[in-house]
Amino acid sequence: MTRRHLLALIAAAPACSPRRPATETVLRVGVAQSAHSVAPLFLADEMGFFRQEGIRIEVDRTSFTGLHISALAAGKLDVAMVAMSPALVNSAAQGAPIRLVASRKYLGGDCGAWGQFYSNLSAFPGGLKDFHELIGKRIAYSTPGSLTDFALDAVLDSACISRDRVKAVAVRRQESVAALLTGNLDAVINVPSLAEIPEARRTHFGYLRGADTVYPKLQTSFTAFGGRLLTTERETGLRFLRAFRRGSEAFFAGTNPVFMRRWAFEQGADPDTPVQVCPHEVDSDGAVDPESVRLYLDWAARRKHVATAIEPGKLIDSTLIADLNRGAIK
């Protein structure tokens, strides 16, 4: 289907919109990061897709995903936009009613991939061109057990470099930018925001694609449901996913949400650039890939970032997307 045809279908959507429930349901949604993978959520809200499903979303914003996971487990949130983390795995292992129900993003290198290296040209005068140049260098990732930690190991393993041959340090993103500017770090893999780097200094850095060259199309971001939408209000969960999917389709077709323009501005980018590039890394189908989840689970258990090793099935509920695909709701 061409982008023009998809845009036409979206424009015609109100004429054949879903049958709206008689009552409105409020869903509390946790969003930790302002990134393109959550653009479909805000776009679906802006375009009225949630309203057509009888849903009103209340977005809870925090920079710490762990708070959303605990809130989801306690029933204080209904939905959370999450990435793989020790907190998520440990909660599921302990029996918390949390499941990954849909994929939002896969790993790519064109839209600020978390697996990309930013390097200080003082440490790499010719630019960082090869993973082996990382040996002996000071490299920052975000937190132990995070996706950036996972990505660093993936890159090193692919080049047959043991972890002890680099000086890997956990540094918060905001602090890593300053350390990179001053030369206290040689490279970071947690993708600093361009807005945090003075424009005059941006040419002082080198860039090298990383984890996406090791694991192309690896799913990295997910929609997680809590107990309410997994059990007693499952149909509402399906309606949420249908609205979110319509937001993904609109984003893929070229519709730029107000949220996305603000995000691009914060990143120091042209507001129209993300909608031209980022949709190619957004998963419009939504089915969770068990192998993507397994890669992280096995790594986290091997590195002892989680208390108990679990299988992907303990963390994934694939039945909602399957029911949505077969038209289980009107």
Structural features, described:
This protein is of the alpha/beta class and 330 residues long. It has two domains: 3-107 and 217-325, Periplasmic binding protein-like II (D-Maltodextrin-Binding Protein, domain 2), CATH 3.40.190; 117-214, D-Maltodextrin-Binding Protein, domain 2. The protein has 14 helices and ten strands. The strands form two sheets. Strands 2-1-3-10-4 form a five-stranded mixed beta sheet, with helices on both faces. The chain has a five-stranded mixed beta sheet with strand order 7-6-8-5-9, sandwiched between helices. Helix 1 (3-11) crosses helix 10 (234-253), helix 2 packs across helix 10 (234-253) and helix 10 packs across helix 14 (319-325). It is globular. It starts with a helix and ends in a 5-residue tail after the last helix. The model is unreliable at 1-15 (pLDDT under 50).
Residue windows where pLDDT falls under 50 for at least 5 positions = 1-15
Major pleated sheet:
5 strands, mixed
Helix-strand string:
HEHHEHEHEEEHEHEEHEHHHHHH
What count of structural domains?
2
Structural class: alpha/beta
How much strand? Answer: 15-25%
- What's the CATH architecture of the largest domain? 3-Layer(aba) Sandwich
Integer-rounded radius of gyration = 20 Å
